[in-house]
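Chain A, query sequence.
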Amino acid sequence: MTTQFDSNAGYRLEGDNSIYASAGGQVVPVVTRAGQEDGRTGQTEGAVRISGVSPQHTPATKIWYGKVSNEPGYRSLAHHHGEAETGGYVLSGHARIYFGENYSEYIDMNEGDWVFVPPFMPHIECNLSRTEPLHWLTTRTPDNIVVNLPEVDDDSLRDWSNRP
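Chain A, predicted structure.
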């Protein structure tokens, strides 16, 4: 660990962030411009995941942060995110996450709601709307791990087929 005094800011900086330095040796913020997000990330059929901050296209090594979009009526395959802790924020739409034994439990979320999904937790993500898309902001540490699990029949998901 190194300690530096930043004479411009007037405080000490602790830690070594040199692994984030550009070829010229300077450490700077990295911006991913709209439309330049990276799609080379773990996917589940029907969900479009794009990363804004990730090891795929920034110097980040311990975080994946992106946007997930689901079409109207979308239901993911059963999956989990391995060792990754996952945080989500509903930007727009109405979401449901099935979990528990045989996916018998669920939570519903609306725009502005946050969710934490623990590592290795099998779940199914759904867009409750039959007419509007669902958009999430999602972050995972250390990366966007997606482990798809065996298919689950719609009829086995409580309140899915008869949703409004």
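The two ends are 56 Å apart (CA to CA). The CA atoms of residues 5 and 12 lie 4 Å apart.
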